Amino acid sequence: MYITSEIREELYKTWQLLLSAKSIVLTSHIDPDGDAIGSSVGLYHLLKASGKDVCIILHSAVPANLRFLISTTEFYQASDIQSKDKVASADWFCILDLNHASRLGQSVQELFTHFTGHTVLIDHHLEPSIIPDRLHSIVKACSTCEIVSEMAKSSGIIPSVESATALYTGIMTDTGGFRHPRTTSDIMRLAAWLIDCGANPVMIYDKVMNAETPHSLRLLGMALSSLQIHLDGNLVLIVLTKQQLEHYLPEETEGFVNYTLSLAGVKIGALITEWPDKVKISLRSKPEYDVRSIAQKYGGGGHQQAAGARISHGDLHHIVQTIITDCETYLHSI
């Protein structure tokens, strides 16, 4: 069990410090996923139930399939006029589910740079570069929602239905629906505890996974028709150009990369999407393979089996060919 008594004690200490705060801002990474929103909303409701003045500020909008989680929160995008005053009046800034300040997005990063209060980082990615007052970097955790849940348990708190729902959502999404390697018996017991606290797994799955529109399904069809198989079936790519994506949002490609691993025998999969201001690379792999090392070559990062990067300037065809070469080199090296 990697959540040791020492870790529980440190989580409890952080909770006590947060309880002493007057005002708290919670934030997470750009292009937020289920764990980013789940951990932010889960901690929000834990703090709100304890009488704290708390809000969530993000650089990006919340994806449509996760908006049900924020309906009862005080939520702002960093571009909203209230955000600057909220940060200025806060005495704690809590950063969730990221390991580098650049992942905050430019607008939140600017707010964070000028913040003079206390900071806490709760995350499960490798090599955190942010130096907060309180650090909880647990790379063996399946999700940041797991760590927030353990903070609640360590502090003797029973989450509300809203908090349990958000935390269960993040665990479910970051484990790929309880399919990824970090789906342990402890995680299943933690998920069961959240269900006992009121999380409804049937409703959550339906809200998160069955939220496609005819528009987004047509995009999925386009993506699957662009499937490319390379390196004798060891590498599968989905590549979408900015012309194909002209009438779509980045959030509408969420989850597409997972289809690349559904072919028998594939080892690495990638979704490469071209947008007006960037090329976005999402990488996935089977458990024996490490795509984080590939993402790092492009200034990105993540986990061994799930990583990504953004390239501000570059030719799509060249990037695709470079990805193929890098994957080939990596597979030959192991």
What does this structure look like?
The chain has 334 residues and is of the alpha/beta class. It folds into 2 domains: 5-209, inorganic pyrophosphatase (n-terminal core); 214-333, Diaminopimelate Epimerase, Chain A, domain 1. Helices cover 39% and strands 19% of the residues. It is built from 11 helices and 12 strands. A 6-stranded parallel β-sheet has the order 3-2-1-4-5-6, with helices on both faces. Helix 1 (5-19) crosses helix 5 (144-154), helix 2 (34-49) packs antiparallel against helix 6 (161-174) and helix 6 packs across helix 8. It is globular, with a radius of gyration of 20 Å. The two termini are 29 Å apart.
Q: What are the low-pLDDT stretches, counting only 5+ consecutive residues below 50?
A: none
Q: Which overall shape is indicated by the principal axes computed on the Cα atoms?
A: globular
Written as H for each helix and E for each strand, in order along the chain, the element string is HEHEEHEHEEHHHHHEEEEHEEH
- Secondary structure category: alpha/beta
Gyration radius (Cα, Å) is: 20 Å
Distance from N terminus to C terminus (CA atoms, Å) equals: 29 Å
Percent of residues in β-strands: 15-25%
- Write out the strand line-up for the largest beta sheet, numbering strands in chain order: 3-2-1-4-5-6
Counted by DSSP, the helix tally is 11
How many structural domains in the coordinates?
A: 2
Q: Biggest β-sheet: count, sense, barrel? A: 6 strands, parallel
| Level-1 CATH class name of the largest domain | Alpha Beta
The tally of beta strands, per DSSP, is 12
Please identify, by name, the CATH architecture of the largest domain. Answer: Alpha-Beta Complex
